[in-house]
Amino acid sequence: IRLTTGAPGENNHTYDFGIAKVICSLTLTAQTTTGSTSFCQGQSVTMFASASATPAGSYTYTWSAPSGVTLTGANTATATASSLTAGSYSFTVTVSSGPTCQTTATVSVT
Fold it and tell me: How far apart are the C-alpha atoms of 17 and 1, rounded to whole Å?
């Protein structure tokens, strides 16, 4: 992009601008630490997420749980859900690497 300032006949100033688009490729897997999706009532379930990105960077993890479930480690790669009663639950983890590079995965247990 080129921008020129000044009126005709005056000393003009020209500025050149460039725009670079950074392509992000973020891969995410999430599962329980045991690999099982079944649990017993009252049992805690620990889940982990593994991410890799191009370009490489640091990762921010954010887990979310259904209402009424206690979630420990919600801002780490490994989160533990407790206070589970009988039923099915879905836990979502969002991982980001920079302001425009993020992806989401879900872990479901019954």
Answer: 5
